């Protein structure tokens, strides 16, 4: 993940392919008890890279007319290192067993990942998942969209990524310097770096909490907190010309907004998709969710200046309304996946479908009972 900060403007480019494959790989190799924490490390690596690039992109370091080619070239160093180290990473045990049917190779991969231990329980879980996977064909993106079997999971997965991007977080990231300048900050570039530091710290908090508190709880807390901060940000921007202390309200709201984002809505959508789907539809679901995420990112990046010009200081009220909707959706539709196997998570959605399927039948029975009683 490479970022540049030049002339106070923040730009970020995260390769779409790796942003989908890395969380999927982590989800498949991680022990059930630590799946959330390891999945959140993906986001921690991103925000750490952002913070480092913000610092070295300062004008007196590398972010100047003479040194920016070196700054750009440095982004290739992590890619070279990753290319060298990637062959040392073991193949996913779930892929080896469930897709290729190589049980012994899967066991060897588990031993490489976790050291000598009794892998019977993990192999048995993969065996059950393989039995279910063998009953279903390899699912393409188009088939996944059309399928009614995975519709609930797909809706939840896509809404998680919509909530991440349409929360307004990238509007703050991309235009943080101008937002801080408008809030009356003398050196907005340093405030932007401070925001990057908070970004990193609260991602660490998420790593520590996600397997204790749960995914659903952290997402609800994050979205609800961001909604409150968006309203506070609007109030601060609206009245900062009348009351000088309101600029502190605006700045505090921005920092808290970022903090709440990194507690849940930032890291969790990237790995929860891998938890919601079995081995068959998982690659297609992650590809679709990633496409949804980056398309939403592009829309926000391109349209925010025009929306801001139209709504002026009330621009974050729009995001507050969206965040409220996402919070309600998460409360009603997103299940808790903490500590559950992939089979158990799938069963949660199947149970919900059975309830929906039985509802018309129950209604018909009530009508029949009512008719017979009247008679």
UniProtKB/TrEMBL annotation:
- Tell me a Gene Ontology molecular-function term this record carries: D-glucose transmembrane transporter activity
Q: Which regions span the lipid bilayer?
A: 44-62, 68-88, 154-177, 189-210, 217-239, 245-263, 284-307, 313-332
Give the location in the cell: Cell membrane, Sarcolemma; Cell membrane
Reaction catalysed by this enzyme: D-fructose(out) = D-fructose(in)
What does the similarity note say? Belongs to the major facilitator superfamily. Sugar transporter (TC 2.A.1.1) family. Glucose transporter subfamily.
On whether Iron-sulfur is a keyword of this UniProt record, the answer is no
InterPro entries with a match to the protein in the record: GLUT, MFS_dom, MFS_sugar_transport-like, MFS_trans_sf, Sugar/inositol_transpt
What species is this protein from? Anabas testudineus
As for membrane topology, the entry says:
Multi-pass membrane protein
Locate the Major facilitator superfamily (MFS) profile domain: which residues?
A: 1-338
* Name by which UniProt lists this protein: Solute carrier family 2, facilitated glucose transporter member 5
**Pfam family of the protein (one):** Sugar_tr
- Annotated Gene3D superfamilies: MFS general substrate transporter like domains (1.20.1250.20)
* Entry keyword annotation includes Membrane: yes
Q: Which NCBIfam families match?
A: SP (TIGR00879)
Q: Which domain of life is it from?
A: Eukaryota
The record's Gene Ontology cellular component field reads: brush border; sarcolemma
Q: Which UniProt keywords apply?
A: Cell membrane, Membrane, Sugar transport, Transmembrane, Transmembrane helix, Transport
Gene Ontology biological process:
D-glucose import; dehydroascorbic acid transport; fructose import across plasma membrane
């Amino acid at each position: 993940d490479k970022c540049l900060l030049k002339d106070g403007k923040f730009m970020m480019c995260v390769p779409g392919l790796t942003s989908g494959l890395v969380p999927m790989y982590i989800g498949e190799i991680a022990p059930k008890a630590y799946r959330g924490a390891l999945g959140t490390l993906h986001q921690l690596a991103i925000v750490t890279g952002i913070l480092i690039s913000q610092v070295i992109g300062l004008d007196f370091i590398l972010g100047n007319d003479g040194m920016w080619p070196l700054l750009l070239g440095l982004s290739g160093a992590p890619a070279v290192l990753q290319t060298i180290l990637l062959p040392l990473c073991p193949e996913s045990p779930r892929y080896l067993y469930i897709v290729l049917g190589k049980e012994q190779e899967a066991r060897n991969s588990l031993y490489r990942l976790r050291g000598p231990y009794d892998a019977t329980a993990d192999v048995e879980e993969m065996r059950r998942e393989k039995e279910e996977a063998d009953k279903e064909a390899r699912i393409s993106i188009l088939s996944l969209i059309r399928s009614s079997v995975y519709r609930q999971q797909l809706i939840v997965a896509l809404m998680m990524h919509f909530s991440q991007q349409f929360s307004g977080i990238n509007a703050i990231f991309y235009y943080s310097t101008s937002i801080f300048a408008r809030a009356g900050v003398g050196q907005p570039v340093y405030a932007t770096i401070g925001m990057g530091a908070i970004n990193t710290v609260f991602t660490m908090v998420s790593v520590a909490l996600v397997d204790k508190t749960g995914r659903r709880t952290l997402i609800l807390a994050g979205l609800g907190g961001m909604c409150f901060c968006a309203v506070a940000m609007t109030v601060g921007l609206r009245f900062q010309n009348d009351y000088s202390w309101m600029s502190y309200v605006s700045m505090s709201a921005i920092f808290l907004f970022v903090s709440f984002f990194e507690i849940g809505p930032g890291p969790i959508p990237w790995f929860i998709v891998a938890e919601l789907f079995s081995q068959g539809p998982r690659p297609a679901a992650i590809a679709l969710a990633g496409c949804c995420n980056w398309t939403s990112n592009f829309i926000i990046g391109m349209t925010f200046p025009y929306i801001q010009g139209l709504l002026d200081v009330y621009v974050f009220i729009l995001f507050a309304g969206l965040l409220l909707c996402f919070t309600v959706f998460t409360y009603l539709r997103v299940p808790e996946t903490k500590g559950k196997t992939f089979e158990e998570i799938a069963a949660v959605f199947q149970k919900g479908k059975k309830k929906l399927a039985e509802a018309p039948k129950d209604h018909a029975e009530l009508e029949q009972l009512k008719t017979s009683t009247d008679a």
